[in-house]
Design a protein that fits this description.
Blueprint lengths: L18 E3 L6 E3 H22 L24 H19 L4 H30 L11 H7 L5 H8 L15 H17 L4 H21 L12 H14 L2 H22 L6 H16 L4 H19 L10 H8 L1 H19 L7 H35 L2
Antiparallel strand pairs: 1-2
Helix pairs in contact: 1-2, 1-12, 1-13, 2-6, 2-9, 3-13, 3-14, 6-7, 6-9, 7-9, 7-10, 9-10, 9-11, 10-11, 13-14
């Protein structure tokens, strides 16, 4: 998602983070936040290129090196890192956007063009080069059309009773649907009552998370010594667990919103109220408590620590101000959209020629995709975004 922007000031407190000045000198991106994006996308790429398509994650290995370099089984936590960053950014964007319609115009301008480009590239690459059909869904025109709506394909299958099930043209695209749901949830609450947005949001989020926790465990954990009626249990499992699944990721988005408020108050040299700290504590504890393994708990702790350092000790994260790291972060959305299936296809087709150097070859594939994404971001995405904003947003 977009990085928030902050006004450039001549005298900054010692703990104010460095920024990248734009030409106008009136707005700037937060470098460290882009650094976070770089960490998130690299961890996701490592997961996809070394672990996701080997056993036990996949029934058959698509890597020529099998599971030899399966060291990144928890790299998918990078997606959850993205969700927290998104919570941070969206609250900032809401505060700087006049109304609901303008907010959604900004989101569409940000998301749709790159999704269209990445989807068409993926489709063409697989139609031309994937003769063994390692990803059959990347060959289907119907999957292009549904993907451009950002809606989860299974919803189309259910409501339109389609004979041939639709699916994602690229596996990574699943995370865009929770994002879209979060945008609707947050923007609706914000523009209904801007003044009390955080109060209303945090109360709603905590209530929904608690209800979801109880309903998902009432049968297995015998909560209240009762059971849900079978019909209600099935309805909830399908419509909330599978179709409209925002609640599963709401603690992550919500923590990001809380971190934004801490950052805002710290920047303004204001003390953050308990009304912010207590919800944040709830969300962080819930995320840790519901983690699947101890290793994931450790990774969550690292992510939380990065946010706290970002807010209170930014000088500890100066390495994330590196120009290359920032460029990767800026290009991370497009990189996220194109890397998975195309990267695996390259590794599957060519990796066998470099078997003794499997890890080095795969790292080179990562670097190639990073380079393509940076070029796209700097030469196409920025110009297209500026053009669309100029013509669509007053």
């Amino acid at each position: 998602m977009d990085s928030p922007v902050v006004k450039t000031i001549e005298t900054k407190p010692a703990n104010t983070i460095d920024v990248i000045s734009e030409k106008s000198q009136t707005k700037s991106r937060i470098k460290i936040l882009d650094g976070f994006r770089a960490i998130a996308i690299i961890s996701v790429m490592l997961f996809h290129f070394f672990s996701r398509y080997a056993t036990p994650f996949n029934h058959v290995s698509l890597y020529p090196y099998k599971d030899k370099y399966n060291f990144f089984a928890y790299g998918n936590v990078g997606v959850e890192f993205f969700f927290m960053i998104s919570g941070f950014v969206i609250f900032f964007t809401l505060e700087k956007t006049l109304n609901f319609l303008t907010f959604w115009k900004k989101r569409i301008i940000r998301l749709f063009p790159s999704m269209l480009v990445a989807t068409l590239i993926t489709f063409l690459v697989f139609r031309i080069f994937d003769d063994t059909l390692i990803f059959p869904d990347s060959h289907r025109i119907a999957n292009i059309l549904t993907r451009l709506t950002f809606i989860k394909p299974i919803i189309f299958n259910h409501f339109f009773h389609l004979r041939a099930d639709l699916n994602y043209i690229n596996g990574s695209y699943w995370s865009l649907w929770p994002e879209i749901q979060f945008y609707f949830f947050a923007s609706a609450l914000y523009y209904i009552n801007k003044k009390n947005f955080f109060r209303n949001f945090s109360i709603s989020a905590i209530f929904l998370i608690c209800v979801d926790y109880v309903l998902k465990r009432i049968d297995t954990d015998h909560i209240f010594n009762s059971h849900l009626p079978l019909g209600l249990s099935k309805f909830y499992e399908i419509f909330i667990g599978q179709y409209f699944n925002l609640i599963s990721f709401l603690p992550l988005f919500s923590a990001g919103i809380c971190f934004y408020l801490l950052y805002k108050h710290k920047t303004l040299n204001e003390k953050s109220a308990l009304s912010i700290k207590l919800p944040l504590a709830f969300f962080l504890i819930y995320i840790i408590y519901t983690a699947t393994t101890f290793q994931v708990d450790i990774l969550y702790f690292i992510v939380f620590s990065l946010f706290f350092c970002f807010i209170y000790f930014p000088e500890k994260l100066l390495i994330l101000n590196n120009k290359l790291i920032v460029k990767i972060g800026v290009a991370s959305y497009f990189l996220y959209l194109i890397h998975e299936n195309i990267g695996i296809l390259i590794i599957n087709k060519l990796g066998g020629f470099f078997t003794p150097f499997g890890m080095a070859f795969t790292i080179s594939v990562m670097l190639f995709l990073i380079l393509i994404s940076i070029i796209y971001s700097e030469t196409i995405e920025k110009k297209l975004s500026a053009y669309l904003k100029k013509h669509l947003i007053p």
